[in-house]
Amino acid sequence: MAHLGGTLDLAPDLTITRMGYGAMQLPGPGVWGPPRDHDEAIAVLRAVVEAGITHIDTADFYGFHVSNDLIREALHPYPEGLHLVTKVGAARTADGEWVMERTPETLVAQVESNLVHLGLETIDVVNLRMGAPEAAVDEPISDLVGALVELRDAGKIRHIGLSTVTDAQLTEALAITPIVTLQQLYNLVHREDEALLRRTAELGISYVPYFPLGGFTPLQSEALASVAARLESTPQQVALAWLLQRSPNIALIPGTSSRAHLAENIAAASLELPADALAELDAIEQTAEPVRAATH
């Protein structure tokens, strides 16, 4: 698994490759409706498994069940060692609008929907999604985490994670249950979450940056382009490699609906950035502009 950045042990029964795959780009434009190319979407998912990746991130609200349905079509029955991670706390309306739905009752319904569309009896990891990429929502989460604990005790999920949370919310959740992963906004130009990254590393919790390549606003930097040119790599590969070298507990979930792009992303895990390149990338000025997206 060296070509995938190695592996992370999140729990005795949960080991993932650090290079994973995010299913957000499988649906059509706006993360809504069927994919532009159904056969290519199926081929991408099968190529993910063939490459040895054991960590697929999804959500039932990606395309209004589309991503989960494609995953099931392409990969069910799932190979041993493949871990599916989903998230709850958000939803899509019938006309495609992003909405937040965070009550114990809606979380239970969302987990059940994920189970149905993925064709599973138990989901490996369910992340509780709080806030939007622009900012976390600083509010108590004990009741919501408690609902997921009940689902875990009922055998519906194996492990619990969090997404877009504050340090205080992580502390609150840890007082209730072990947390195996944290999914947050973090990349070369958005490093506001540095303290939580360090804390999760100390606690042995995996940290999964979403929008590792900028999301709906692709990363742009003269320094990034310069380093990529010197290393004969793409800026995207350098940005992913930087994240893998940033902290040993980071796992990546770059998304794509193209097999060629998937191969480029996987190659980034084998790219070793020299000290001078790391220093140049570390010095990139952080942007003050928020990520303009309702969810991830």
Describe it for me?
This protein is of the alpha/beta class. It contains ten helices and eleven strands. The protein has a seven-stranded parallel beta sheet with strand order 3-4-5-8-9-10-11. It has a two-stranded antiparallel sheet with strand order 1-2. The radius of gyration is 18 Å and the shape is globular. It starts with 6 loop residues before the first strand and ends in a 14-residue tail after the last helix.
Short description:
This protein has 296 residues and is of the alpha/beta class. The protein contains 10 helices and 11 strands.
The proportion of residues forming helix, as a percent range, comes to: 25-40%
Number of strands: 11
CATH topology: TIM Barrel
CATH superfamily: NADP-dependent oxidoreductase domain
Assign the CATH class.
Alpha Beta
Characterize the main sheet.
Answer: 7 strands, parallel
Q: Which strand-content bin applies to the residues?
A: 15-25%
Q: In one word, what is the shape?
A: globular
In total, how many domains does the architecture comprise? 1
Count of discrete alpha- or pi-helical segments spanning 4 or more residues: 10
Strand order of the largest sheet: 3-4-5-8-9-10-11
Distance between the termini: 27 Å
Which architecture would the CATH scheme give at its second level?
Alpha-Beta Barrel
